[in-house]
Design a protein that fits this description.
alpha+beta; 2 helices; 14% helix; DUF2977; DUF2977 domain-containing protein
Length: 73
């Protein structure tokens, strides 16, 4: 029987920035409930665009898009 995944695995650096995530498998990070991901998390994800603090995922006000991010989109 297949189980619906209820968590995402996120990598968080020392500045609390989310650098990668997976909803299938993992990225060697921590598991967080899917329901705490912002509605536009998947569409807007870029390394360091979101912060994970105190169990909450929010946009990083200090984020600046790098050339690498532009090439991936």
């Amino acid at each position: 029987m297949w189980h619906k995944r209820t968590t995402a695995n996120i990598n968080v650096n020392e500045d609390k920035e989310i650098t990668s995530y997976a909803t299938v498998g993992g990225v060697g990070g921590i598991d967080v409930p899917l329901d705490i991901l912002p509605d536009d998390f998947r569409e807007n994800f870029a390394s360091k665009f979101y912060l994970y603090e105190d169990g909450v995922i929010k946009r990083n006000p200090d984020y600046t898009q790098t050339r690498f991010d532009e090439e991936e989109q």
